[in-house]
Amino acid sequence: MTSDKWSIEKRAPLRNDSVLKEENVPEIGCLSIVVLGASGDLAKKKTFPALFNLYRQGFLQSHEVYIFGYARTKISDEELRDRIRGYLVPSKNTVEGHEEDLTNFLQLIKYVCGSYDTEEGYRLLDKEISEHEIYRNCTEGSSRRLFYLALPPSVYPPVCKMIRKCCMNKSDLGGWTRIVVEKPFGRDLESAEQLSNQIGELFEEPQIYRIDHYLGKELVQNLLVLRFANRFFMPLWNRDNIDNIQIVFREDFGTDGRGGYFDQYGIIRDIIQNHLLQVLCLVAMEKPVSLKPEHIRDEKVKVLQSVVPIKDEEVVLGQYEGYLEDPTVPDGSYTPTFATMVLRIHNERWEGVPFILKAGKALNSRKAEIRIQFKEVPGDIFKSNKQGRNEFVIRLQPSEAMYMKLTVKQPGLKMSTVQSEMDLSYGQRYQEVTIPEAYERLILDTIRGDQQHFVRRDELKAAWEIFTPLLHRIDKGEFKSLPYKPGSRGPEEADKLLEKAGYVQTHGYIWIPPTL
């Protein structure tokens, strides 16, 4: 452009990434689902039941799918089927025909025994998969292979190496090979990056599905719709109206025999760094350009990169009395079973709004919820602020619900106010609907190639950058846990931290889920 003339400059076209395709290409090749760690608890309690429910609802068809279990345990096909049979239970709407569905589903399962770090077992697994594909008259290269690693992260690298070497789809004619990996993805930033590098050398990012089952929960998946499809929320969802936000996970039981495993990670690595932080991203993110997975995940990464370092004075750790009595827990363990912390997001929307993440075991109740507390009404002519602030609560589990806590007139002749609620309880509103389990939804997303509800590599890195400094100090014993009694709310200091952060508790009001 010169000083006196304008010119039109043509912009370069957008890159044609496969992850940004308008529509998924129809996939017609046969589907092989391989559950590695098939004899373990995760596979029995979560993976196989999720596959059974997808089969029962018609998302997995007998004529196209076959399921392979792979583990070191030397058992037969029938023994594996017997092991998982008791976990495949009917839902309220599928009692009729359950036994027939169960029998037909179990016949789709074949077991292959082999080690996780040598070729022999994987060669045999590949042979069995190929025979299934030939039997289904599947064109070579059009078949779909999904590997679900229901295994400890320590064996991910050798397992992925063997899959890459022995079990990949042979050519690219519309088929694919995908892997699903479970959390925890490392113990800190360094180990997570090392694990990402090892897997990333073997598979492309669109082939890797890092599963966080909280992203499959019904109410978590509702967050985007709630925020961006309802006009009245849009002007309220910011620092001008919201005082503080709590994201809470509470369990009313301890480690229950899993103390040795839990002690390797603790409540921050087990719950806060992944589950609660993912929920925070969905609550705090900006509106994405579209619903394409990469656009949504881009906005989540921006939130994580805007989180400022956690301050020591905004963290309370706890360990319930009796935890160290578990014979599987090391003597003198510093591992917290409870944590409350304040995260702060440095951007235009959320500057000054504390995000309070709270998780604990052996507490006085079991629930997971998001609690958005609004600021007090200015010029309160009813003097109702003392009764409590408006709150919007999203109950993730149990008794899924959304309710708005607000002030209304007390029925009667007097002009007095009382706290009440506008309530959407799913059990009452959607009585004929069976809410899918998170694993069902996420496995189906994997088959469809939709990575929206999975953690991207840069997202994982940004999450670990937030928590690694604090975790290293805890591991060294520099940040001690406070004792608390099982069945309590946790350490009293946690409630004081909430109060200091600005949360105002409502006294005299209790939300009661409506009865059917």
Automatic annotation (TrEMBL):
Pfam families: G6PD_C, G6PD_N. It is an enzyme of class 1 (oxidoreductase). GO terms for molecular function: glucose-6-phosphate dehydrogenase activity; NADP binding. PROSITE patterns: G6P_DEHYDROGENASE. It comes from the Eukaryota. Residues 34-222 form the Glucose-6-phosphate dehydrogenase NAD-binding domain. It catalyses: D-glucose 6-phosphate + NADP(+) = 6-phospho-D-glucono-1,5-lactone + NADPH + H(+). GO terms for biological process: glucose metabolic process; pentose-phosphate shunt, oxidative branch. InterPro entries: G6P_DH, G6P_DH_AS, G6P_DH_C, G6P_DH_NAD-bd, NAD(P)-bd_dom_sf. One of its GO terms (cellular component) is cytosol. Keywords: Carbohydrate metabolism, Cytoplasm, Glucose metabolism, NADP, Oxidoreductase. Its EC number is 1.1.1.49. NCBIfam families: zwf. This is Glucose-6-phosphate 1-dehydrogenase. It comes from Heracleum sosnowskyi.
